[in-house]
Amino acid sequence: MKITILSMFPESFDSFQSFPVVKRAVDRSLLELEIVDIRKFAGGSFRHIDDSPCGGGPGMIMRMDTLMRALDSVRTPSSHVILLSPKGQQYTQKRARELSAAEHLIIVCGHYEGVDRRFEDHTDEMISLGDYILTGGELPAMCITDSIARLLKGALREGATSDESHENGLLEYPQYTKPVDWNGEKVPEILLSGNHGAIDKWRRVQALRDTRKYRPDMFMKYEMSEEEKKWLSEADQNDE
User: Fold this and answer.
1) Which helix (H) or strand (E) holds 22?
2) What's the burial of 74, exposed, middle or buried (CB within 10 Å: 0-12/13-18/19+)?
3) Which entry of 42, 73, 106, 184 is 20 to 30 Å from 198 by CA?
4) Are 111 and 84 in contact (CB under 8 A)?
5) Nearest CA to 150 among 112, 102, 100?
């Protein structure tokens, strides 16, 4: 797949392109990453990228003509255009998986007080990372690109993403490694038992418990199987 990012600050992505998973996806020809400088499409001798808002008000607005020239230079019939905006739907792992199947994504990074409202009508969707404001869309563009790159087949080892947080409606189960005993803090014995069936059950129960504790909003939406309800009830009773 190909991801094109339109930004006023393309240099922001210099180190990002060397991130291990992103670089691996590019090196293996799983991903083509294109960073386009919006400033190159600004007209006039002063390179007008932005202007004051019509009707008055603070800040500057990115110009419609400049944005459209930049977009038209890279858009094709197969392109899906995303504008990063507080108006957008909140980004999720589910949406990351859906977008990872696209042929060509164009991500437009807003800046200043935002973009000319008319530009929104020339995009396919708007996405927000959350209910907070950043200086520009560069960091969200990196987050979205990274979340998609790691889902491309061959970027990570097979099965590496299947049990992660948010993949199945739950947080991931807790993970441990060596040393097994660190100053009296020990790895749960079940994980050292070699009983993979028991380990799988323990991990599912811990995922349910952690989701219930740390993300009750997720837990309320998750539909437990009868077996999971039984396992969770037994674990809770054993702790009483």
Assistant:
1) helix 20-27
2) middle
3) 184
4) no
5) 100
Say whether the peptide bond before residue 179 is cis (omega within 30 degrees of 0). Answer: yes
What's the rounded Cα separation, in Å, for the pair 35 and 4? 6
Question: Could you read off the pLDDT of 184-220 as tens digits, one per residue?
Answer: 999 999 999 999 999 999 999 999 999 999 999 999 9
Q: Answer yes or no: are the C-beta atoms of 9 and 112 closer than 8 Å.
A: no
Cα–Cα distances in angstroms (integers) from residue 145 to residues 19, 105, 161, 216, in the given order: 11, 10, 16, 28
- Give the Cα separation of 26 and 20 in Å (integer): 10
What is 111-130 written as a DSSP string? BTT-B-GGGGGGSSEEEESS
pLDDT, mean over the chain: 93
Give the DSSP H or E segment for 88.
strand 79-90
**Torsion, Cα of 27, 29, 30, 32 (10° steps):** 90
The number of C-alpha atoms within 13 Å of 171 and in the hemisphere containing its C-beta is 19
86: alpha, beta or left? (left if phi > 0; alpha if psi -120 to 50): alpha
| Mean pLDDT computed over 9-19 | 96
First-to-last CA distance in the chain? 52
Helix, strand, or coil here: 214? helix
